[in-house]
Design brief:
Blueprint (H helix, E strand, L loop, with lengths): L4 E8 L7 H17 L4 E3 L17 H17 L6 E10 L2 E10 L2 E7 L11 H4 L9 E3 L2 E4 L17 H7 L4 E6 L7 H16 L3 E5 L1 E4 L2 E4 L3 E3 L5 E4 L6 E10 L2 E4 L9 H19 L5 E5 L3 H14 L4 E5 L7 H5 L3 H6 L2 E4 L7 H11 L7 H7 L6
Parallel strand pairs: 1-2, 2-3, 7-8, 8-9, 16-17, 17-18
Antiparallel strand pairs: 1-14, 3-4, 4-5, 6-7, 9-12, 10-11, 12-13, 14-15
């Protein structure tokens, strides 16, 4: 008897919110790569066709229709006999809008799965945008039963509102869990994700693939760093962080269930990871908004040097212009000569001397700052308006 196996391609890609056509192009390219690798299934991240997070854009009927049309077109393309595709999309059904994953195979939408647990904390407000989906059973790809919990479906612990999607999938015959995510970066987030996945693998006894989005979207940064665990909690694969990556994993069925031995990439940690996140966030903010480059106000200190390094690493020196803004209190050496690092890095440097403020503006700023030097920190805090987080 030949060994049973399934090849699953993880497409850790960088979608753009609102660019349905461009995101569909990326999905096609990922499927072409998966087909060349002989894969059975290619997986993309949460709400990939819309870009994540779509926020209020996803409430517009025209945008919902555009996403649906793109998914239906991608579905028709799977008629070529190549790999199936599991892709995140907003989906309207029976008048309700869901955060969904669509399984495309054989020229059609073979199955839909809806997110059951909607996050409503931190940067997430999905309860306002989406209807809650039911806990459903697995989908079938090439004879293998695959459970598809979506992001928060594995994150929430037992509570009054929590639907235990993983337990439902295990009880209804899932053999492998694939989790599409849109999980933003934070320092040490990798350890938190791993602890959550270990808990789900332990309770279900099933291997789990954690596929995360990569890229920057406004103030959010998605680091990718997708990974997979075998049922015995050993690491089956680890993709790199802060870069697009398409990797095909071969899963083989053994006496103890499905198992994979894929590539394991070392991860950035601490300050190095934070720096990579800043570079990625700036690069995508500039690129996705169509800006030609950045103007960088330069004082000559270490803060300016760090900001310039991030900008040049993100965009290239040809898209960074430094602007010196000396005032009467600026040291003479800084007023007349840009720092050496700025001359090396930036494509152009200008020095624009700030004019002396008018008498009226000086009076205004004196009134604004009156008492600051003599006011205790406690008194300043009492004067300050209450902050809301």
């Amino acid at each position: 008897m030949s060994e049973q196996q399934i090849k699953i391609t993880l497409a850790q890609l960088n979608p753009t919110v609102g660019d349905v056509t461009g995101n569909a192009v990326k999905a096609r390219a990922a499927r072409d790569k998966a087909k060349a690798d002989g894969a059975d299934l290619v997986v993309l991240s949460e709400l990939f066709i819309a870009g994540y997070p779509p926020e209020d854009l996803v409430l517009k009927p025209a945008f919902q229709s555009a996403c649906r049309a793109a998914i239906e077109e991608l579905a028709r393309e799977t008629k070529d006999g190549g790999p199936a595709m599991l892709i995140g999309t907003p989906w309207v059904e029976d008048g309700k809008l869901y955060n969904a994953c669509a399984l495309l195979d054989g020229g059609r939408i073979a199955a839909l799965r809806f997110k059951a647990n909607l996050p409503n904390y931190g940067v997430f407000d999905e309860k306002r945008l989406f209807a809650r989906g039911p806990a459903s059973g697995p989908v079938t790809v090439r004879g293998v039963r695959i459970g598809v919990p979506i992001c928060e479906d594995i994150w929430l612990e037992e509570s009054e509102d929590y639907e235990n999607v993983v337990e439902c999938l295990a009880e209804t015959g899932a053999e492998i869990l694939i989790v599409p995510n849109g999980s933003p970066y934070a320092r040490d987030k990798t350890d938190l994700r791993l602890s959550i996945v270990v808990a789900r693998v332990t309770e279900s006894g099933l291997p789990l693939i954690y596929l995360n989005e990569m890229g920057g979207q406004d103030e959010l940064i998605f680091d990718g760093a997708s990974f997979a665990l075998n049922a015995d909690l050993s690491v089956a694969a680890q993709l790199p962080a802060f870069e697009e990556n398409i990797t095909t994993l071969t899963w083989r069925k053994t006496a103890d269930g499905w198992r994979c031995n894929g590539p394991i990439t070392a991860q950035l940690e601490g300050d190095k990871a934070d720096y990579a996140a800043c570079v990625l966030g700036l690069r995508d903010y500039v690129r996705k908004n169509g800006f030609p480059g950045v103007l960088l106000g330069v004082s000559g200190g270490i803060d300016s040097a760090l900001c310039a390094a991030i900008a040049v690493d993100a965009l290239g020196a040809d898209k960074v212009r430094g602007v010196m803004l000396p005032f009467r209190y600026t040291a003479q050496v800084r007023s007349t000569t840009p720092p050496s690092w700025l001359r090396r890095w930036a494509s152009a440097t200008r020095s624009c001397r700030l004019p002396m403020p008018s008498t009226a503006s000086r009076r205004f700023w004196r009134r604004c700052s009156k008492g600051w030097s003599a006011t205790s920190p406690r008194r300043i805090c009492r004067r300050a308006p209450a902050a809301r987080c």
